[in-house]
């Protein structure tokens, strides 16, 4: 299951106690409805944007996984234990922070700077730094320019503009897959960037839509006005909230900061003013 959201994202719009009441303390209900809300958003965005990238997985960092460009992780470590003997370079989480051991010890709290050094906040977000600039469909590239596109690094062989690297090997090199070796810690600044590279508008609307449907599950006739307003403006025309924004994205009235579907050479992507767009060849 690809999950864009983190549990902490809900805290922006609802208190923990209230959310637990809505989901009856059953986290699987929240996850199931969240997936349905994600599918609902995808149905509006899929013709204009690469939704697999828009709703990419926010995973918990693992030492055994190789990561690709832009992959986002939540970094945590095993909880500190006063009964464990820690050797130098071992990392632990304690009181919302991550520490690394600098001197073998047992029983000394991670806040003891003789034995431990603070690394970062627990559950901080990190994403893979691109090795080269990302390909841009409107940029004129000259011989020798190097770009990253869909997990592959390409070198320009002939000057071009608007030619997707993977579509024409005469203008671009065959390319080489880029990934970061398993075990490269998120705090390695040569490979990772600290921060959240998700589109925050998408995150907000996905939470809004999920909360609306969670309330609808309890009593469709008694959904709080706030949830209805944030979902569709609380009116039959659905001219407000998350749904109105998604409709404007689908019609082309709004251009979101999301990964666009790029046209092949000689094609033009068009959309109408209602709900969809088409691809035409000129």
Helices, strands, pairings?
Layout: H1 16-22, H2 27-45, H3 51-54, E1 58-60, E2 67-68, E3 72-75, E4 85-86, E5 91-94, E6 97-101, E7 105-106, E8 116-121, E9 124-128, E10 140-141, E11 146-149, E12 152-155, E13 160-161, E14 176-177, E15 179-180, E16 192-194, H4 200-218, H5 225-232, H6 241-251, E17 267-271, E18 277-281
Parallel strand pairs: 1-3
Antiparallel strand pairs: 2-15, 3-9, 4-7, 5-6, 6-8, 9-16, 10-13, 11-12, 12-14, 17-18
In short:
With 282 residues, the protein is an alpha+beta fold.
Question: What does this molecule look like?
Answer:
There is one protein chain. Helix content is 24%, strand content 22%. It has 282 residues and is an alpha+beta fold. The chain has three domains: 126 residues, no CATH class; 69 residues, Seminal Fluid Protein  PDC-109 (Domain B), CATH 2.10.10.20; 45 residues, Carbohydrate-binding module superfamily 5/12 (Seminal Fluid Protein  PDC-109 (Domain B)), CATH 2.10.10.20. The strands form seven sheets. It has a four-stranded mixed beta sheet, with no helix packed on it. Strands 5-6-8 form a three-stranded antiparallel beta sheet, with no helix packed on it. It has a three-stranded antiparallel beta sheet with strand order 11-12-14, with no helix packed on it. Strand 17 and strand 18 form a beta hairpin. The radius of gyration is 23 Å and the shape is flat. The C terminus is likely disordered.
